[in-house]
Amino acid sequence: MKALCYEGPRDIRYETVADPTIRDRREILVKMTKCGICGSDLHIFHGKSPAANYRGESTAGYSVGHEAVGEVVEIGGDVRRFKPGDMVMLSGAVGCGECSECVTGNVTRCSKIVRCYGLSHDLQGCQAEAIVVPAADFNAAPIPDGLTVDRALMLTDNLPTAYFGCRNAEIRPGKVAAIVGLGPIGLMATECALLLGASRVFAIDLIPARRARAEKIGATALDPATAVEEIAAATSGAMADCVVEAVGADATIKLALQLAGLQGIVSVVGVNMSQEFKFPMAQSMGKGLTFRIGGCSVQYFWPELIPLLQHGRLHPESFISHEMSLSEGAAAYELFDKRSDGALKIVMSA
Question: Is the distance from CB of 182 to CB of 222 less than 8 angstroms?
Fold first, then answer.
């Protein structure tokens, strides 16, 4: 089959790889219909694989990506939830599906193993013509009634992560929120913050076109160079109660900490690979800040998010800017990395 493989920094290739096969009775084999490029995939594109950083292993030659929907073509003998022909969405976060935490949907606290597709040879990626799904009854779900393939694809990572970021920031009615970074997840977080009742949402990004998208949603869009001063003026110095950081760069995390007011909450969902981030401890202690960071247990939020999509309360598919073929994957990564041609969310089909 064909897949997008990481072969070195800025070197993603459309290659022929071995056909995946089911090796466990709890697995299913899925023919990919659509997959997405996530902002965190750019860390791999730039040569900063988590496996290389934390385990020191070679990372070349594995397939990438962790967002996909598709058709079940084969099931293991112990699979109960699916049959061949079913259309499914895959959770980017992969748990064992058996421990007490997984049973509640909390992959982050899985007592056996927590994985993500497409980070190393350990679990091959979803930007491929076919994908083996481990513990499939837990790590996949039927595409819900009334949802398009594009909406279902946004449920595999981006929308749950945005919602998780807002929940971690404790955004609720009356709160002033700030969203730092207006890529797909940041824009979805902006929409979620308004849905959750924030009295005002400040949306911050370097790119004017992305700020304009946030304005259309209903946020007050700001350039990061003036965001601190403008939010201070707009709130009479109180600053934001809740801040969601959706980039993962040192500079944007520092800005998020600056934007938070007294006893504010900063929620970081952008992936930061730095081992030397200098946390502003004195500033944070003086404000009495709460700082939260982590990955999302995608499955945990499906029961809340699916009805919101079915009833048109959220529109994550509106942030898809480009649809390309898997064979154009190398160009898609370059386009997304350079943010050229209005690139926002890029979706690929087999």
Answer: no
Q: Which two tokens stand for residue 197?
A: 């009742």
In this prediction, residue 54 carries a pLDDT of 46
Which DSSP string corresponds to 245-282?
Answer: E-S--HHHHHHHHHHEEEEEEEEE-S----S-----HH
The mean pLDDT of the chain is 95
Specify the amino acid at residue 60.
Answer: A
Sign for the pseudo-dihedral over CA of 304, 308, 309, 313? negative
Q: Where residue 120 falls among pLDDT bands split at 50, 70, 90?
A: confident
* Domains, the chain: 2-157+297-349 (3.90.180.10), 160-293 (3.40.50.720)
pLDDT range class, residue 252, cuts 50, 70, 90: very high
| pTM, rounded to two decimals | 0.95
Tokens of 265: 């909450």
What distance in Å separates the CA atoms of residue 28 and residue 70, rounded to the nearest whole number?
A: 11
For residue 4, how far is the Cα from the chain centroid?
A: 19
Look-up of token digits 């971690």? 168
What are φ and ψ of residue 319, in 5° steps? Answer: -95, 5
DSSP 3-state assignment of 202?
strand
Residue 322: partners with Cβ closer than 8 Å, 6 or more residues away: 332, 335, 341, 343, 344, 345, 346, 347
* Mean pLDDT of all residues in 177-195: 98
